[in-house]
């Protein structure tokens, strides 16, 4: 009897790195930190077919050192 492999619904959470501030004054659609995190997670998901990406959450522009609640 063939065993059925479980599929896990997964969300990607990406957060701005404090060191990735735009010092050039250029308006980017997405920071380098977010872009790199997205690539790392997508590569991980490609290697783990039991994980199905269902949503992505991005905190681009907010850092962990900013304790103001963001809604």
Put the structure in a nutshell:
The chain is elongated and about 50 Å long. It has one helix and two strands; from the N terminus they run βαβ.
Give a written overview of the molecule:
The protein is α+β, with helices and mostly antiparallel strands and 71 residues long. The chain has 1 helix and 2 strands; from the N terminus they run E-H-E. It has a two-stranded parallel sheet with strand order 1-2. Helix 1 (32-47) links the parallel strand 1 (8-15) and strand 2. The protein is elongated and about 50 Å long.
Topology of this protein?
Blueprint: E1 8-15, H1 32-47, E2 51-59
Parallel strand pairs: 1-2
Strand order of the largest sheet: 1-2
Q: State the major sheet.
A: 2 strands, parallel
Range of strand content = 15-25%
| Number of continuous helical runs | 1
SSE topology string: EHE
Q: Provide the helix percentage.
A: 10-25%
Residue-averaged pLDDT: 80
Question: Stretches where pLDDT falls below 50 for ≥5 residues?
Answer: none
Secondary structure: number of strands: 2
The termini sit apart by 49 Å
Label the structural class. Answer: alpha+beta
Principal-axis shape: elongated
Gyration radius, in Å: 16 Å
List keywords for this structure.
single chain, 71 residues, alpha+beta, two-stranded parallel ribbon, 1 helix, 23% helix, elongated
């Amino acid at each position: 009897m063939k065993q059925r492999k479980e599929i896990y619904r997964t969300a990607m959470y990406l957060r701005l790195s404090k060191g990735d501030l735009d010092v050039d004054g250029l308006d980017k659609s997405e920071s380098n930190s977010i872009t790199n995190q997205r690539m790392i997670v997508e590569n991980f998901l490609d290697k783990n077919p039991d994980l199905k990406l269902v949503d992505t959450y991005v905190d681009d522009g907010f850092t962990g050192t900013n304790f103001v609640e963001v809604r």
